[in-house]
Write a structure and sequence with these properties.
This protein has 751 residues and is an alpha+beta fold. 28% of the residues lie in helices and 21% in strands. The chain contains 20 helices and 31 strands. The strands form 7 sheets. It has a 9-stranded antiparallel β-sheet. Strand 11 and strand 12 form a beta hairpin. The longest helix has 22 residues.
Amino acid sequence: MRTIRHQLLLLLLLTSVLFGCSQPEALLPYIDTRVGTAASTMQTAGRFGKGSEEYGQVIPAVLEPHGMNFWTPQTTDTELKCRAPYYYKDTLFQGFRNSHWIVGGCTQDYGSMTLFPSSHLRATLPERRATPFSHSTEVATPAYYAVSLDSMSIRAELTGRSRSAILRLSYPTDSAAYLIVNPNSDEGEGYIELDTLRKEIRGYNPVHRIYQGKGKAAGYSGHFIIHYNQELAEYGTYHYDTLFAGHTSIGHAHGIGLYIRFKRQQTDTPILIKAASSFTGTDGARLNLQAEIPHWDFDKTHRELTAIWEQHLSSVTVDTRDTTAKRKFYGAMYRTSFLPHAINDVDGRYPNFAGGDSLCTTSTAYYDGFSLWDTYRAQHPLITLLHPTLSGHMMQSLVDKYRQGTWLPIFPCWNSYTAAMIGDHATAAIGDAYVKGVRNFDIATAYEAMRKNAFTTPSTYAEYADGMGRRALTSYLTYGYIPVEDSVKEAYHRQEQTSRTLEYAYDDFVLAQVAQLLGHTADHDTLMLRSENYRYVIDPTTGYANGRHADGRFLSGSNPYTFAPYITEGAPCHYTWYVPHNPHGLMEAMGGRDRFISKLDTLFSERLYWHGNEPCHQVAYLYNYAGQPWKTQRIVRHILDTEYGDTPGGLAGNDDAGQMSAWYIFSALGFYPVCPGTPYYQIGTPTFERATLHLENGRTFTIEAPGTSSERRYIQSGTLNGKPYPHTYLHHDDILQGGVLRFVMGDTPKR
């Protein structure tokens, strides 16, 4: 890491020398895309999450922000669940993958292929052909990746666009130049062929679902093409260790692929390879490549992608003398730029939702990969704040899924229903966008979809079992909570009844806000009553969330500090706080403000807080509601300093499609959306002396905190546009109107 970091700092220096101080600062060199690819070394690493939960599960990808493909070095040969394509601990390079990995989670890749430059054909399968590489030879930014394969003296470079990539491969002058390609079908259903007249390799890898519908075909494939511009000296296919020289196609088996060897006329000239993909067909992949990289100029594509990233990153500029903090911040910006991602071709075509058996067309972009249990919390609010037009396109994509599938999906990935995780947080994402003024999507149909999820269940068991509709809605409507007798068996996450109750109460609140804005008064009133259902699962005896029987009895002998089957991925002490829409009501249900504060204090003093998973993400900000904002300021700064780093192990847990990083971005700026679906942010502690949001409406909003530091973390006073600002919250409109929020910081709490 140190060698690459020195290279990046040198690039920053050269940029300032070449372009002068008047030019905007280049932000891309602050990003090392390998942060989060190793096991966590942060403070709470391994305390609660184990195995894959100890990793950020991110990848060092080359991509456009929210683009189709994530071009990544591959060290792991599988699309299986919970296996990221790349891990920092690995020492063998298997190739470059056009990944669609649901980045940062325990999910699966899909529709991908891998290509590998080699000087020989001694092995063709990824795990056997894998060659040693050193991290010291890697350059890993979102616009460019390079690595040296020293055992073969090959230097491989990669850049690209949303749906396409270009590689520059420098082979030694005294060796052969091979390219090996394999479709990554774990089911053995892939296909690949060579067309020597077109100088094209093409193939496909059928997509399969997980969670509800696990193993079923998603109805569409990841299609790919690879173009080369040199003559071939040799080609063939392979099946495991058997080579079929001169063959041009192979498919529908495990362990297959294709190889080509180039004629070397000018042996010191790098070989260029172009590749693209599509979820509609080979013609779509060709169209994408022609539109995005119609030339053979590697540096031109690199410049284009660099400009795209600089524009994206410059939506927020920060001033600080702490370069590590700056690297952490823009690294987080990179990780929030994967998902959701566009899956349509450049002409707007994409496979229809929940079936893929026909093609649809969008005039903007169609997005998928909504890890909504995670991303509604801060990732989507961040997009809504900085890129509201993009947010609207994403919300329209959710509406389109409803139109095509007849139910608003809970956790739409692989362009399919999944019913993964819990809650109904498409409602939360859509509601938050609408409440904050995003209007470039069909809210009437969106409301119809959200209301259907909240009030009805599928008419057939087959639909329900396939992932349509809220899980256990009948129990929720009958009792006001989901009793432990309902095992919620038609879900990947079974049981978890208390957590579901808490999340449905919040979702009902958000839908009520939309209903009010649209004039649906009766719905609003009903949903607001339901939003108080959290009270049914807060045990008055202990003051913690607990499981509850259908007859009203709470479970006896429950330990609030250990994992429980009625809680999702955590313990009652984590989930008790999940009433973001009514913390004062939660105080009352827990037994009062003092008991609320005492239990919050215990969570942090006894090291029970778990930042590596989402249910705790709003908890540090709850002191604001209890009248002790200095505790929020102390704890938030502690989390920023101890749960995020600038090393491969620098994430406290799974980044979960950008949510972990979005928490960092908001919190480092000094505010956080505790309750998406309302236009308010809770103020924490600003970490930059000056941070400016360059808003889409042309205005700027600046947060100033002269002298802020880990020690000077406490807000003494504040002004908004020169007027005293005594509040512990910030309104969304205050940001959109532009201005300056200025804080006086100190090293002692202002009580």
